[in-house]
Specification:
Rossmann fold; GMP Synthetase, Chain A, domain 3; 3 domains; five-stranded mixed sheet; 15 strands; globular; binds guanosine-5'-diphosphate
């Protein structure tokens, strides 16, 4: 799954087979088929997507259904996937069939869910007309207070359901405040690479400091300032200053502080030490940033200590950590350089590139090229590439519709990414290419 979509405000769709879960999932997500995130090895019965509603963003997972034994009892072969989704979720949508009414299997599912102590909305689906939408009395007997009847097929009452979902999720007020405030930047790196020196240099450069405000944890302090008419928020500046005291001898990369800074950030500025080269710990940070789908600027600091050329650094980075080579990279000496403005310009550019919209016409052209090249290779005649489309920005997410995702190799996905980058400027911004199997439509209409 796209981890970024994952943990926070996750909503899981649960229910026995055939009640319309995938139909509802598709309706909520806004396009019709589920996406298989093959890159990250997600099996087909657990698919995630993100939903934007009323300026809020939450993630949704289709559990693929809870399976039943022949006797109709809930089976302990309950898909472990479904169970895991329930565990991870903050809110459950329990889908039932409004045309049939509550059945024993629905009640068994409620029993199964009880120990998880999750918030539940009961969603009688297939309420295709106003009468069905309003006949809820039998469902109230199931003991779940929050009920919204919908027709996933015809898109009825979906807005009401989304409103209720949003009202039940615990969106951190802070997060919404930050949205308004500006671009969130995390400064990360191993101890001693120069994070606090970098921070001090930025903040001392006659910038108007807007504010220091308490962050999500009690002792986290964020600092906001204006650069190029853009408000930027440096995340957890207190943590950076105190890092040495706090983390001596501790694996800082598993520290929740670094992880939460990266998660909250729009752009990560990752400092390396020119003198040491890329160490294992740096690799872990690259991975963290990449996995979280964040924009990235890499600063190779202490360039005064060794004689390095940027070109060589880029080659090394490409070789050792190809997956982060989308980043802007700069060589610098925080200690001796007068200004760090170039780094902030990279931050802005990376952010802009992560918002870039690429036209469908251009994507069609890119796909044509890709097809010619992939087809040129032997043993690929089984693979059919049907369509390439941009489904999301920040992180940039593209869906490639194919006849069978199993025919697609990781190298093909890389190739698609390379072609996308060749055709437009996505530097600094990660790109995800997801696969979707071209299938015949079930009875789903829009
Ligand atoms: P799942 O097994 O719970 O994921 O169910 P599906 O989404 O595959 O749907 C099962 C069947 O119910 C399909 O034939 C759908 O077309 C149908 N269905 C789903 N939603 C509705 C609805 O709102 N109204 C009606 N009449 N049929 C629906
Ligand atoms: P942090 O632990 O990542 O916050 O690193 P600091 O900013 O505290 O820097 C660690 C040490 O590296 C300090 O002694 C700095 O003076 C030194 N340092 C930082 N930037 C540079 C640089 O560009 N060149 C050199 N030679 N030393 C630097």
């Amino acid at each position: 799954m796209n981890k970024q979509m994952g943990k926070n405000n996750l909503v899981a769709i649960i229910g026995r087979p055939n009640v319309g879960k995938s139909c509802l999932f598709n309706r909520l997500v806004g396009y019709r088929q589920v996406i298989v995130d093959q890159q990250e090895g997600i099996t087909r019965d657990r698919v995630y997507a993100s939903v934007d509603w009323d300026r809020r963003d939450f993630a949704i997972v289709d559990t693929g259904g809870i399976c039943f034994s022949a006797q109709g009892n809930i089976n302990f072969c309950i898909l472990s996937q479904a169970k895991q989704a329930v565990e991870e979720a903050e809110l459950l949508l329990l889908v039932v069939d409004s045309k049939i009414g509550p059945v024993a299997a629905d009640l068994e599912i409620i029993e199964f869910l009880r120990p998880f102590k999750k918030k539940i909305i009961l969603v009688p689906n297939k309420a295709d007309n106003s009468l069905e939408l309003n006949s809820l009395s039998e469902f109230y007997e199931m003991g779940i207070e929050a009920i919204v009847a919908v027709s996933a097929l015809h898109g009825l009452n979906i807005d009401d359901l989304l409103d209720l979902v949003i009202s039940k999720l615990d969106f951190k007020e802070k997060a919404n405040l930050e949205e308004k405030l500006g671009l969130k930047v995390a400064i990360i790196g191993r101890p001693n690479v120069g994070k606090s020196s970098f921070l001090n240099k930025i903040l001392k450069q006659d910038r108007m400091i807007v504010d220091d405000f308490a962050g999500t944890t009690r002792d986290a302090v964020d600092t906001a300032f204006i650069f190029n008419e853009q408000e930027m928020i440096l995340i957890d500046t207190a943590g950076i200053r105190r890092a040495k005291k706090t983390y001596r001898g501790i694996d800082i990369y598993s520290s929740s502080r670094t992880i939460s800074a990266v998660k909250r950030a729009d752009v990560c500025v990752l400092l390396l030490d020119a003198g040491t080269g890329i160490l294992r710990d740096d690799m872990q940070l690259f991975k963290l940033v990449k996995d979280q789908g964040k924009c990235c600027v890499i600063l190779i600091n202490k360039a005064d200590t060794v004689n390095l050329k940027l070109k060589n650094c880029l080659e090394t980075l490409n070789l050792k950590a190809y997956f982060i080579s989308f980043a802007f990279v700069g060589l610098c000496s925080v200690k001796f350089d007068k200004s760090m403005d170039f780094a902030l310009k990279f931050v802005q550019a990376a952010w802009e590139n992560s918002q870039r919209k690429i036209s469908q016409q251009q994507l069609n052209k890119i796909l044509k090229n890709i097809i010619t090249n992939v087809k040129g290779k032997s043993s690929r005649e089984n693979l059919k590439l049907h369509y390439l489309t941009q489904v999301r920005r920040n992180p940039q997410t593209f869906v490639l519709i194919v006849n069978n995702p199993a025919f697609v190799k990781t190298s093909d996905l890389r190739y698609v990414e390379r072609e996308l980058r060749k055709n437009d400027n996505f530097q600094g911004a990660p790109i995800k290419v997801l696969l979707k199997r071209k299938t015949k439509q079930k009875n789903v209409k829009n």
